[in-house]
Design brief:
With about 220 residues, this protein is mainly β. Helices cover about 0% and strands about 65% of the residues. It has no helices and 13 strands. It has strands at about 25-30, 35-45, 50, 55, 60-70, 75-100, 100-125, 130-145, 165-180, 185-195, 195-200, 205, 210-220. The strands form three sheets. The protein has a nine-stranded antiparallel sheet, with no helix packed on it. Strand 5 (about 60-70) and strand 6 (about 75-100) form a beta hairpin. It is globular, with a radius of gyration of 24 Å.
Length: about 220
């Protein structure tokens, strides 16, 4: 028997990736309870190989301005920020069927950008109750795209970037009830509302807006 004929064929490939990731931040305490800041940073996600192709590393150029506050002796915290992110070679993974075989591909989108804001509020109305609320908005746009043999890319410029929800909102409550004998019952509940987003550069495949609810009870004993 020819053992070599029974062995699966193999493919070998290698690549190395590296990046310089600087970060600069300026902050100013307008008052003892209010801080303003501005940040510039560069992000990096390594490239690699998928089942059918090699893809380059993803880099981001991030610009952010915002504020952080603490009021009422720390019982109320309000933080907000606005951001601009330039993506280079944003990574996108998808599955495609070729000749009845499903393969996984990862490609690069040459240029995309995200602009948006975030607002976060944390409050403690009483010693037992804490509450939180966050809201965020993102405007994502494809600026440049490359042809792909498996998915349509014509007309993609100006469309929404894949996998980026346009808005998110969430709220949570935590209540701590003492039970005696150094025991405490903690009730937690949270709701998150997330906008629908696209899976592809042509904006043909879409997932609807979703709401997620989370709740739990915990019995805790002090140390």
């Amino acid at each position: 028997d020819n053992v070599d004929e029974l062995r699966p064929s193999t493919t070998e490939a290698e690549a190395s990736y590296s990046a310089f990731q600087p970060k600069v931040q300026l902050s100013w305490h307008w008052t003892p309870d209010v801080m303003l800041y501005a940040t510039h940073s560069q992000g990096f996600r390594t490239g690699g190989f998928s089942q059918s192709t090699r893809y380059d590393d993803e880099t981001t150029y991030n610009y952010e301005v915002g504020f952080k506050t603490q009021m009422m002796d720390g019982l109320l915290t309000i933080n907000g920020s606005a951001f601009h992110i330039d993506y280079r070679n944003q990574l996108l993974s998808y599955g495609v069927t070729t000749n009845t075989t499903l393969i996984r591909r990862t490609i690069n989108i040459p240029k995309t950008r995200n602009d948006g804001f975030e607002l976060e509020i944390q409050a403690r109305p009483s010693q037992r109750l804490t509450a939180g609320f966050t809201v965020g908005y993102t405007d994502s746009v494809i600026v440049e795209v490359s042809p792909d043999p498996y998915i349509p890319t014509a007309g993609a410029i100006g469309k929404n970037s894949p996998l980026v929800p346009p808005f998110t909102m969430s709220g949570n409550l935590t209540y701590r009830a003492p039970l005696g004998n150094d025991m405490e019952l903690i009730a937690y509940g949270a709701v998150q509302h997330r906008g629908g987003f696209y899976f592809d550069v042509a904006n043909a495949f879409y997932t609807q807006t979703k709401t997620f609810v989370d709740a739990n009870l915990t019995l805790e004993k002090g140390g």
